[in-house]
Amino acid sequence: MFLALVSGNPWLESLARLAIIAVLVPVTVIILTWVERKVIGRLQMRLGPMRVGPYGTLQGVADTIKLLTKEDVRPQTADRWVFELAPFVIVVPVFMAVVAIPFTADLFIQNLTLGVFYFVAVSGLSIVGFVMAGWGSDNKYALLGGVRAAAQLISYEIPLVMAIVAVAMLSQSLNLAVIVGAQEDTPNIAFQSLAFLIFAIAGLAELYRQPFDIPVAESEVVGGPFVEYSGIRWSMFQLGEFVNLVLISILGSLIFLGGWQWPWSVFDESVPVVAQIAMMAVKTAAFILFFMWMRASLPRLRIDQMMSFCWQLLLPFALLQIIINGLVLVYDWPNEILIPLSGAGAAGAVYLTYRAARATGVRYQPGYQTVGSVL
Amino acid sequence: MAIETRPPHESDLETIDINVNVGPQHPATHGVFRMVLTIDGELVVDVDPVIGYMHRGNEKLPENCDYRQVIGYHDRTDYLAQFNTEHCYVEAVERLAGIKPPERAEYIRVVLAEMNRIASHLMFFGAFGTDIGLFGTSFMYAFRDRETIQDFFEEITGERMMYNYFRPGGVAWDLPDNFRQRCSQVLDSVERGVEQLDGLMMENEVVLARCRGLSPVTVEDGINWGLSGPMLRATGLKHDIRRAEPYSIYDRFQFDIPTGKQGDVYDRLVVRLEEMHQSAWIVRQALETMPEGPIMAEGLKRVLRVPAGEVYMRVESPRGEYGVYLVSQGSDKPWRHKVRGASFSNLSALRAMSVGNFVSDVIIILGSIDIVLCEVDR
Predict the structure, then answer these.
(1) pTM value?
(2) Which end of chain A has fewer surrounding CB within 10 Å, N or C?
(3) Nearest Cα residue to A87 out of A236, A249, A200
């Protein structure tokens, strides 16, 4: 729409597109923080924020102002540049990833042919920021948290990417718009329920949400890498986290739920832009609410459980989904056969998790034991 | 601080253990407890509990107080089980002074102490949920019911926390008229809430995976370490002072002593959950048979002088054996006043239970001991 005003001049146009991100994304985050507090509050029989504005709607704004005006404290022993640059290293890749996301068939910043690939590559960069924050803070909690974050992010990136690859195999494209277009009749969640399950779980881990909030565990490492940050730098971590939440949710609704497509062909020919945006919003909100719901109802896993869950369960099942898809593609079987196959895989994964949780695990015993006081 | 270097295992990298101070200001230490963890990566090599931040002279101060003034100090010793601790103290004084409290007062004490046990275990479940990483959900659910009980106590005693309601020889004043009806109302709503907590925590896959088999304690170890209460019962030993050495009128009530199988963290949860139901059962029995009558023993002087002698009185508090040792020399003040805190003895097993586990496990092991720092440091 208003991009038409600046079209023609590539510099102006790209500036305008970037301005949209820079304005829209923080506003979304401010709204989302309020939504999260409200939703979790209701799940916990609380009202959530109620004081600032009607039903506390302005709470996000008030928090933002508070965070912006707070003192930016840096520990004296911290590694100055590593400490101060870490929030940027986390936030910038997240914003870069927004560039590749199409919101409707025609509304996007830049439609990339390798959109999925770009998204995965860029969003993986933020690991560096967490390790930098953990290392640079000169704090043992932060160090523990940073190392945990590195281990967790690197592990869960793999099943996440594999789940995405499974979908890309089915639509034979890495272009997000094409992937959505291929789901005109049936969304991918029907054919790829196993991949969807893996995506949702790995997404939880990528976002440090319960049960995978191990790097930022409040009761163990007191916020992990963020423990020494305050004011604007801390809010940048928060910003990165929430933008990531939106991004994973949008990605999930694009590649699994059919993006802006309406089900049952409600619109005969072309879907109006407003309806497309509404559909996207509904599907994204479903994902976001799922993540919030998990946060309010699940405790935290231990780090070794988190790792073995990833490497022993998610990864083999992600490979299984890829193998199934490969067989279907090679032998030209009808796509419908994927529905029972993938569904059986998903049921198997759920069953194994259920059984593993109920089996009394053999605990790791160290080979040495120090006796005596450390003081 | 000693930093030890270890022989390299499985790789050529030389690693050092680091010491991490957890506490005294840390969300998971339930007060001002501090533990120095020596960690090798995520693995805890050594735990050194440091206590004493909360020391207020709670044993010495009462030696300068009148026998009735001491009751308030027992509220503040275990601030989650005030009625149980008060019960212990007033019963100790009564045994020493040879006072026989009237029936009604005994019933009131048992009802309130058992309600308080429920409230304390609710607090445990709330705090344990936060330790294990539930984002406040169990906390809010447990506190809803704890609030109900606290409101109920407030109606009776006028206080929400430091009740100061039991007296040597009886209780301070009589119950409100609608007590019976209100009490069963509160019990019903609390038991519904306990069912919800049960559903939220006990069958949760993550809780199962985290707590099953974590830091199992054998019966022998439990006894040797001086564990008591739910910690000891979780190991499988059927030991409850209300049964083993019945005080007050506990021999009149029917109740079970829930025990665990292997003394792991999960068993401790199960035992505490079941104890809430048992306490509710005791309260219901007591409500049915509660007699009318006086609430204070006859013929007590304004200043209570206790004949010379000594007494050790112990009760089953929600955390275990809470004991009071009193020596009187015939004056109006105790000459020696010693408290045995259940949390203190239970906490002494922390190191043995924690070494070799992960950092996050040590947090929930500490949570499962259910310490009250005021009782540890006194």
Answers:
(1) 0.86
(2) N
(3) A236
pLDDT at A369: 34
What residues of chain A lie within 8 A of the CB of B356, using their CB?
Answer: 365-366, 369
CB pairs under 8 A between A and B: 131
Is residue A222 less than 8 Å (CB to CB) from chain B? yes
Ramachandran assignment for B248, one of left (phi > 0), alpha (psi -120 to 50 degrees), beta (any other):
left
For chain B, give every domain's residue range.
Answer: 70-303
Amino acid type, B206: V
The chain A residue lying nearest B214, using CA atoms, is: A363
Structure tokens at B206: 């993550």
Distance, in Å, from the CA atom of B148 to the CA atom of B122, rounded to the nearest integer, reads 11
Which ipTM value was assigned to this complex? 0.80
B65 touches A: beta carbon within 8 Å: no
Which range has the worst mean pLDDT, A98-107, A132-141, A344-353?
A98-107
Instruction: Enumerate the domain spans of chain A.
Output: 1-69, 75-264+271-356
Q: What are phi and psi of B40, to 5 degrees?
A: -110, 90
Cβ contact, residue pair B45, A369, below 8 Å: yes
Q: Any chain A CB within 8 A of the CB of B131?
A: yes
Run of H or E residues at B291: none
CATH superfamily entry for domain B70-303: Cytochrome-c3 Hydrogenase, chain B (1.10.645.10)
Q: Which of B360, B363, B366 to mutate to test the interface with A (most CBs of A within 10 A)?
A: B360
